[in-house]
Each structure stands twice: as structure tokens, then as C-alpha cells.
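[job 0412] stage=fold_complex status=start
inputs:
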Amino acid sequence: MGVKVVKFGGSSLADAIQIEKTKNIIEKDPDRKYVVVSAPGKRFSEDNKITDLLYLCKTHIEHNLDYRQIFQGIKDRFTAVKANLKIDVDLDKHFKEIEENLSNGASEDYIASRGEFLNAIVISSYLGYDFVDSADLIVFDERGNLKKEVTNQNLREELKKHDRVVLPGFYGANESGDIITFSRGGSDVTGALVAKAIDADMYENWTDVSGLLMADPRIVDNPKPMKNVSYKELRELSYMGAKVLHEDAIFPAREADIPINIRNTNRPDDDGTFITSGENLDSENSIVKGIAGCKGFTSISIYQSMLSGQKGFIRKVSEILEDFDIPLEHIPNGIDTVSVIIDNKYLEGRLDDVLDMFDKRLSADTIDVDDDLALIATVGLGMARRPGTAAALFSALYEENINIKMIDQGSSELNIIVGVATADLEKAINAIYKAFVN
Amino acid sequence: MGVKVVKFGGSSLADAIQIEKTKNIIEKDPDRKYVVVSAPGKRFSEDNKITDLLYLCKTHIEHNLDYRQIFQGIKDRFTAVKANLKIDVDLDKHFKEIEENLSNGASEDYIASRGEFLNAIVISSYLGYDFVDSADLIVFDERGNLKKEVTNQNLREELKKHDRVVLPGFYGANESGDIITFSRGGSDVTGALVAKAIDADMYENWTDVSGLLMADPRIVDNPKPMKNVSYKELRELSYMGAKVLHEDAIFPAREADIPINIRNTNRPDDDGTFITSGENLDSENSIVKGIAGCKGFTSISIYQSMLSGQKGFIRKVSEILEDFDIPLEHIPNGIDTVSVIIDNKYLEGRLDDVLDMFDKRLSADTIDVDDDLALIATVGLGMARRPGTAAALFSALYEENINIKMIDQGSSELNIIVGVATADLEKAINAIYKAFVN
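[job 0412] stage=fold_complex status=done
writing structure:
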């Protein structure tokens, strides 16, 4: 028997019907002892998230506008949930306290966090689980950075006192007791911190999709979810812009080597995606785990005859970029050419300065600039070492008549990175997806 | 009307029959005014090159052995050529002078150069061209380095006094008048220097093959010659081990933008290979100009989570290699991995030291070493930008079930570099050759 931390996102907790589903899910597996909840999300596409409404209250207060109508809407949603779930909990007490704090100039972080707080109160009551406030356990320093060690110890000590617990996600408090929210990753981080602290066997992250998708659904029509993916693979995909769990949300679980299972509250029988530290090559699954692409790169190619064999040239190139505080994405090189691939966001308005410096400090014959570059990462552990992967990838691009501007695949790589023209990005991702998935 | 410098290699001048062929070639085109000659080469496969015999004379003298029998063989070859060509030239005078110098401890360079000297005497007489001794024009400094400016000026001034000239290749002299031979590139360098000095329209380099071959004939059966190739393409191929003209022999012509035409004395109607500065994409020719491969590389892959976006990591890696005085061939990188590809010859006995230093100065999670790496360069200007090249290349490797360890293609590249296991090198080159040539 193991222990599972289950985190439910906003859409899984948007109303009583959704919360009933989560109860069924939790009760189906006695290991699901630690529940982390988000604030209620949208019930339908035009609906508002509770957290957005809370931020709106704060804005009204700042502009001396009446926020009470909006806050009434928030109260009404929680009250309706309470009524529908037939639970006995004194929400009015909490509403009153929050309104008092709002009037007394409570911080934005405090206000934003109340959706999770109230939802955790409601759901703990509905499940018959203990409510534990994250504000008492998750600790930030005065600069707003998480104090990992103290947090881990607090969570561990408190949670072992309870058999079954609901915690609000998204926030903690500093040492003065002021509420602080996570700047990135939200309730996912809370779940991962809890999983690490109690040394969980699994961190289940329940959402409204049946796992992480192999490609961006705005680009590929109805992409398949990944069955399993390693932290490393996920990192490569997320770096290239794939919408997955935020790094901050993965790291605590990764450090403790706890598998993450992304599940769909609306389709609880789907296996979802397992995120683990190891390589998972099940035969069912394609060797390519996912495809992600990013626009907005510039390639600067420096040609100098007799460059190869010169020691220190690549060092000089990278030093110059470091002086500009520009990270170097890739540095493919031929015999007498070195290209540097740079994310445009670091280059804005400075391209000419960078080129001037290359000109000054490198005795280049020619320097070419290509600012119409998009990169595509095709990711899968071991994929690159399997004969045929590259052939399938480049044949797929060829069939779509897509010009390849750059290729980068390292020796121990789980990733083939291809550069194409910006206009070709979506066509290229679709071509690669089709080549490996169908 | 233009001016051509024609250089003939040893096999083109091995005996009277060969020299007759060169005369026909020269007389067929009145532009062929400047002739640079090598020493007589082998007439048949077990034969000796004159230059080798001359070196052997020197070795005999150093060991106090009688060299006269060997020198007699050299004299006999020249005398036979003279008789067969029916020319009137006093070779005995030169033989006598050389023997005197030999007895008086002449330098190795002096002795080695006499094959070219005597051959130029013979051929100038046969053609009715002026003989000009390179020793009076090509100048080396006291450390044996070519003095380019003085040489260029000397050649220019002297040669404009003559309508048609034969010069011996391979040597010049220092300012004290001592003969100095080129350490690399031999008579090819002389031809290129002459071509540059007189601003020739073409530098014809006559050999025993109908041009530069698209692949190593020891690996690919009967490879086709290239029709044309640019200096840049040639440089990429030669760096990867293709046997082509030596850099030193190309540079003077390249500097002056003089095309080089590699021709076959035994098949003078073949067009041979044109080496030019520009891109030559004729429709007859494959977009791939050549394929060259090299064994003996090691890949060191450094993995560190959250490496991407770190500034200075590539700089640190290249600094460490620079400290070891190791040039960096390639540095493919993924999101959290940087691989460095190093030529084994720089690594000998020091791999552990390098790894220790990586360990100490980079906070890597893991470092993997793969010392079974061969690199293949598939070269052609513009090739990399043409859709389908990569597809054809990787499909060819896939059909042979060859595992791809690394890929490197830069943004303005004329070269796709692929890493394979050492044992796969020859199979891979053949597969790529077949994919592009047939």
C-alpha cells in the first residue's frame, strides 16, 4: 500500500458536479490521502475563475470602487456548492473575515489566495478530511522566495499528525504571517511540495485533459496524449514552448523521484500521462514522445577560412555573447563556419551591436544573419540513437517541401533540433507528428 | 585570350612518352605559356620516383656509402629521355655540378630539388621555352618560411621578360642562396605562386586522374570526379581527410581568385575538376560535391538539469579544452546537454584529466564518453538549404541500418556532418554516395 498526493485543478472543482467527481475519484483509491485543491475554475467557457474575480475585487478597492457586488458573486458560488453538496460548514464566518481584511487593505496575494482557502474548507468538509492551512506550513522569505527546507519539515511534521487531509494550493506565508502566492506554477507546486514532504509514492495531478499532449493542439488537430514521459524529455519539450507543468511544479517531485500522473477528472478511467525519472520505452508508445516548436530565433553565421583547428574560437564567440548577457541556444559549426542561434528576446535592438563586436573581436571573412528562424524539438529518450528516426523526420519535412536551416543532435541526445523558416513552423510540426504518430 | 599556368605532376613527366603527351597538351592551347614541372615520377608501379632516389643518395653519403650507382641510375633516366626526345642539351654539365655539390656536403633540400631542376632543363629545351630557375625567384626566410611578397614580386618581374617559360617546381632558395624545398604541397605550390604572380586566368594542374574524386576510391568503388567545386567545399572535404590539393597549394590561387583545373595527362579530353571561388550549381552535377569521412573522434556529453538558458556554460567548456590545448571540433547541444566532439589525437592519454577537469569546473549531473565515433562530411554549397538533402542522406543511412550518433548542420552551411560508429564509417560513406550519385 502506498500514499498518493492528489491535486485537483480549477476546472475539476468548478462546481458541485465536478466536486462530486473528485470525491468519487478520491474514494476509489484509499491511497489518495493528501488532497491539494485549486480555487474553483470556469464552469463554462464564458464563466469567470474565482481567482480572477478576487483580483478584480482588489483592483476595485484600489480605485475606490465598490467591490461588494463582485464579492457577492464569489460568495454565491461557494454557497451554492455548499447547498448542492449538503455539507455543514460555516462559510459566512470566513466571508466576513475576508471582507474585513479587504477593507483594511489586505495584500493582493492574500486576496488572490482566498479561492483556494475557501475551496479547501468546503472540500475537506465534503470529504470528511482534515483541513490544514498551507499558510501555516509553506514558508517564504522576505523577498518572496520559498524556504524549501523549513517548508519540507513543516509539511512533514504536520501532515503525519493527520490521516487524511485537504490543503489549499497556490500559497503559503512569510515569517511575519503575510500570505504569499507562488509566482509560477500555482497549486501544482503545492502538490509537489506535499508529495516530497510525505515521500508519496505518486503525485496525481487531476486536470481536464487525459494527460500531456504530444503536440500543441492549436497546431496539430487532436494530438494524442503521451502515455509516459521522463522528466528529461518533459524539460526539453517545455523549454521549447510546450505547455506542460511548470518547472517549479516538477522539481520537488523530481528531487524526491516521485512519479507524477496527469489525469482527467472527467475521464477518470483514462490512464493519463506518467512522468517519471527513468526511460519508459513501452511498445505501445511511439519512440517520439512529443514535438514542440518555437518561433523567434536568429542565427548568426561566422565564416572564416582556416577556422577549423583554431583553438579558442568558440570560446571567443561565447564570451562576446556573455558580455551582452545573451544566452547561446545552439552553436552548430562546420569546418570553417560557426553559427550561433539566439533567442530574439535577448537580441532586441542589440543585433547591430553584437555584429559590430563579432566584427571587432573575430577576424571573420563574412558574417551572415538569418532572423527568420523557428526551432522544432522532436523529443524521445533513446530516439536519436535508433536508426530511422532521423530518416523519418527529414523525409516528412521533405515531403512537405520544407527547407532545413539547421540541425543539431548531440551524442547522448534525446532530441533532434531542426531549424526552419518561421512560416514553415506549423507545417513542419504537423509533418513530424504525422510521421511518428500514424 | 588569357594566360594559363600549367603544372605537370611526376607521373605526367615520368618518361619521354609522357613528356610527349604534355607537349601535345601545351601546344594545343597557345594560352599555356607558363609551365611548372615536377621531377620524373614512376613509370610503372615498382619504379622509383627520381626524388626518392635523390634522397637515397643523400642517405648513402651520410652513412659513408657509395651513392654513385644510384646516381648513375638517375643520370641514365634523364639521358634516355633526352635521347628519346631528340633534344640538344648539355646534361653532363649539370650532372657534374650536382655530383660535386654532393661530395661537398650539399643539403638534403638541395639534393631533393635536383629532379625538378633537371626535368625543367630537359622540358624547356624540348618545348623551346625559356628555362627560369625558381631558386632565383622564390625566396624563403632563414627559418624556412616562404617570403610571399618578395616572391610574388620576383616572379612577376622576371616572368614578364619571357614569352614562354618552364620553371622547376618544389623549391626556391633563402637569401644566402641555399636551396629550400616546400615542406608541404610540393610543385603544386610553385604553380599556384606563378599563377598568382602573373595574374593567370587559369591554373591547370595536370595529374594522372581526371579530377578530384567525390569519395575516397579505397572506400567507394570507382567514384566519379567532381565537375566543379569551390574552395570552400574543397576545404571542408580536405579537412575531413579527403585527399585533395594541399591548402598551401590552393591559397595563392585562391587569394588571387584564379580558378584551378585538375586534369588528366593521360585523358586530356576529360574536363577534369574546376576549383573556383564561387558556387557552381550546374544541372549536370549533383548538389552533393563530395563525401569524406574520418575515424578517431571522441564525444564527451555533459548533462546538467536546467542547463539551458545558463549563460557561459559553453564558454566554460571551451575554456577547459583550451587549457588542455585541445581544439573543439563540434559542440552539439540539446536543452540540458552539451556534447563536445574531439579529435582523439589531441586526447591521447589525457581523457581522464579532461574528464576530471570537467567534473571539477562544471557542476554536471552526468558526463558520458563515447570514444567510438567517426565523422562524415557530406559537402555541397547550398545543398543543406535544399529540401530533400537531409531526407535522402538519413534515409540512405537508415536503409543500411546505421545508427546516427550526432548531427551538425549550421545555418549557412554547405556541409551536413554526421557521427556514426567507427565500424559503420565505410558502409555509411557508400550509402551516402549511392544516394546522391546514382
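[job 0412] summary: The longest strand of chain A covers residues 290-303.
[job 0412] exit 0
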